[in-house]
């Protein structure tokens, strides 16, 4: 855990006069940001903007949040690409440090292409930095407009909105853009959500400028007009704002270029993963171990279950790496542990969800070392068999998750397997049902088998659907093949646990659970008993 003090900041990025790499149109720019420092010398991507079509002067709305450490040289690389939907072609890059940008406030720098090394500018990049002032508020908003000016010769208008936050120095930062509504003078845009800290820095009275534009596919977009307001006014019921075109406002009989109406603007609190932990939510981990024959006998050196006094096998490393992290959040340290796909001596037939301790009424084992010990003791007593079925283990996890009070517990099933799943349809259906429960499923693929079906369960392109077309209410599955990390258990744990905080907050928000946060006790009010204190009382 990094104990260095940091400041949370966000970067807003724009481009100007970018080099045009397209023949029949303009470039479609996107900016990708990577970072490295002395602690992490290999650059890693920390964020990317959206793609803006046919624009050499983009104002990207996607902000990039970063932790800024005063004492660390955090090197940043900004690469602007032209993206055609399939390929990225480099327009130019700019390298600097986060400290430089923080010191400047707004950096305006040249982009260059190192491949040509001719020193010529490939356009400008503008990087603005702001400290993130913590706010739990999310703003839900829907806007429409009435009677906007007709801007097209052979049609009406194709209106869309830009929302800007105006800084104290007068700079405008684009924080949102709507979709284009084609051929109408009375557009209604889709509802959207935006964090209060991004919209207005958490200050309801910061000036916002909402611009209404007419989209044009063959030339530059035309300004219909704009209005100035703030979040406090937008939150008032029935808010309507005149859209004023600055080139027309001094003309006789001109009133406005339309009226912007706020159909809905509400503010709601959202809570973080840490908020739920502070509010008393506990993790419980369940473990499921594959005892199918494809693993190989535990006495065979080539087996994934091979037991050695000198080194852990892949199952042991996965259990230790993932379990030792989740163990920090479970006060009881009691974990139900099951095997599947094997024939235990004490049962006498193949079972797809048998307790490792042999006690169906109380399958709980104390601590991660206890799990590893039970695994060692059980292997000689289980005949490896098959097939590989997940349904029984998942049903058992669902029953456990359903038995706990809402909001107090969140369950994580660690399922380790070496082979392809043989009950895919039923498993898909169960996962869709389980998405309603306080449950996440981590699947670790061990060995070198083909895990394509597992990747279907970890549906990163959208929410999972079963064969009947029913859709999961949220993403609860994370699949990772162990070989991806060269057998490094710590990288495995980092990867498989990365999505858990979001899965927890998604569930808690879905059920409307509000954590009861303990009051912060001022430091000066914390008494330290002299009998229990280990520090020298004479120290300053």
TrEMBL record:
Single GO MF annotation: metal ion binding
Entry's Gene Ontology BP terms: cellular response to calcium ion
Keyword set includes Nucleus: yes
Domain of life: Eukaryota
Similarity remark: Belongs to the copine family.
UniProt name for this protein: C2 domain-containing protein
SUPFAM superfamilies: C2 domain (Calcium/lipid-binding domain, CaLB), vWA-like
Domain C2: 1-112, 121-245
InterPro entries for the chain: C2_dom, C2_domain_sf, C2B_Copine, Copine, Copine_C, VWF_A, vWFA_dom_sf
First-listed, main subcellular location of the protein, grouped into a coarse class: membrane
UniProt keyword list: Calcium, Cell membrane, Cytoplasm, Membrane, Metal-binding, Nucleus, Repeat
Annotated localization: Cell membrane; Cytoplasm; Nucleus
GO CC entries: cytoplasm; nucleus; plasma membrane
